[in-house]
Amino acid sequence: MKGKAEFAKRMLTLARSDFDSLLNAIREAGFDAIGPVVRDGAVVYDRIAAAGDLPIGLTDDQSGGSYRLLKKRSEPTLFDFAAGPHSWKKYLHPPTVTLWRRHRSDGSVAEAVAEAGARKPYAFVGVRACDLAAIEIQDRVLLKGEASDPIYRSNREGILIVAVNCSTPGGTCFCASMGTGPKAAKGFDIALTEITRDGEHYFVIETGSARGADILRRIPATPSTADHMSAANEVSVTAARRMGRSLDTHGLADVLRHAVDAPRWNEVAKRCLNCANCTMVCPTCFCTNIEDTTDLSGDVAERRRVWDSCFTLGFTYIHGGTIRASGLSRYRQWLTHKLSTWHDQFGTTGCVGCGRCITWCPVGIDITEEARAIRAQASSKPVATNA
Predict the structure, then answer these.
(1) What gap in Å lies between CA 282 and CA 336, rounded to an integer?
(2) Measured between alpha carbons, how far is 163 from 185 in angstroms, rounded to an integer?
(3) CA–CA distance, 11 with 223 (Å, rounded to integer)
(4) Would 129 disulfide with which of 19, 66, 181, 373, CB 3.0-4.6 Å?
(5) Taking 60 as the threshold, does the pLDDT of residue 287 lie above it?
(6) 98 Cβ contact list (under 8 Å, min separation 6)
(7) Closest CA relative to residue 63, chosen from 272, 363, 339
(8) In 302-311, which positions are buried (b, 16+ CB within 10 angstroms) versus exposed (e)?
């Protein structure tokens, strides 16, 4: 968030048996570690204290509308799974924020106090490359635009990011198509690549900031050998080849901008439940609503900011009615904004290729397939000529 201090980029190797030393060093540096844990049959994000809290030996199987955790063969890997239903947006742009609270008994009004002011700064452990790109996009939207969000800024300030380069992309991942992964290129303080081969289990570590370098001085890591660095590079190369999906982004923004009447919208609208799952799990969606509530006694009133979605009927309600009354118009708005008009607003795509919207859609609607079908219909449309 602030100016970057100078640091020497280093490649280090840490044995799996010493991984807890990294978490201890993070904690000793004053951070509250948040990382992947297993809950309710899925990998989600919560506080972690030791390597034992991580999804050891687990991987996942993902496809359209389907997610299953699986036990691996024998390797007790720590990070061999793809993106789950949570993203780091949960901590930076929380689903519910109390803006103010009023008590009738004494007439006092308590303004919202950002949670970041009352806690240790977070260390995000296990951030994938696609989610690094998503954080960068939300920074652009919520920090660097004309209207900076003070709540997001407060939560974002001081975050330490420990990235993990993907080794096993999910069946719905397409980050390689979006240029956002599977290898973390920027935006991290520390980046890890997990290696299991020839009976060895270790991490190749890359420093990304002065803060990261300072933490790494406290752990028993050694300079990486050429063999270790080659093995780490191979992990990312292999993961890029094993992507479950792909998306051709060339000219796609213009295709969608002019595809308002494409027949495909009617087809997908028949399947879409307008449940908003895709926007809730998306790491870049940022829409909110304001809700006023009063407790049962009538003595306490609150105003809250909550996540909202362009799929809800009331999202575009104004005096006189709802602008997008049909499910077709709401799906079209979401996909067109995500892959096309987002460029006009923020200079980038709104999609990072994490595949969450495909996995967690109850009917398995696939954004890559819908974009491909609309492109095909656009290319087959007859070109008007002058008589």
Answers:
(1) 15
(2) 10
(3) 6
(4) 181
(5) yes
(6) 112, 302, 303, 304
(7) 363
(8) bebbebbbbb
Contact between 371 and 357 under an 8 Å Cβ cutoff? The reply is no
Which residues does 378 contact at the CB level (< 8 Å), separation at least 6? 255, 258, 259, 262
Beta strand 122-127 pairing with 32-39: parallel
Task: Look up the pTM and report it.
Answer: 0.90
- State yes or no: cis peptide before 182, omega within 30 of 0: yes
Give the span between the Cα atoms of 342 and 336, in whole angstroms. Answer: 8
Of the candidates 281, 349, 356, the one whose C-alpha atom is nearest the C-alpha of residue 137 is 349
User: 93-109, pLDDT tens digit by residue?
Assistant: 999 999 888 887 766 66
Give CA–CA dist 162/176, Å, rounded: 20
- 273, two tokens: 């439940």
Contact (Cβ atoms closer than 8 angstroms) between residue 257 and residue 344:
no
The pLDDT tens digits for 361-373 are 999 999 999 999 9
Spatial distance between the Cα atoms of 105 and 2, rounded to a whole number of angstroms? 43
Provide the token pair at 295: 């407790």
CA contacts within 13 A on the Cβ side of 281: 20
> Which residue matches tokens 């398995």?
364
**Averaged pLDDT of the chain:** 90
79 neighbors 163 (Cβ within 8 angstroms): no
User: C-alpha distances in angstroms, 299 versus 105, 112, 291, 293, 295?
Assistant: 7, 18, 17, 11, 7
CA distance linking residue 361 with residue 279, whole number of Å: 10
End-to-end C-alpha distance for the chain, whole angstroms: 60
Give residues with Cβ within 8 angstroms of 211, minimum separation 6. 5, 29, 160, 189
Element (H, E) at 27: helix 19-28
Structure tokens at 294: 């009063």
> Cβ distance 181 to 130 under 8 Å?
yes
Q: Which residue has the tokens 């004309």?
A: 146
Q: Per DSSP, what are the bridge partners of residue 201?
A: 196
**Cα(308)–Cα(303) distance, rounded to whole angstroms?**
15
Q: Please spell the DSSP secondary structure of 208-259, one letter per residue.
A: -SHHHHHHHTTS--EEPPHHHHHHHHHHHHHHHHT-S-----TTHHHHHHT-
Residues sharing a CB contact under 8 Å with residue 276, sequence separation 6 or more, in sequence order: 309, 311, 312
Gap between the Cα atoms of 206 and 184, Å rounded: 10
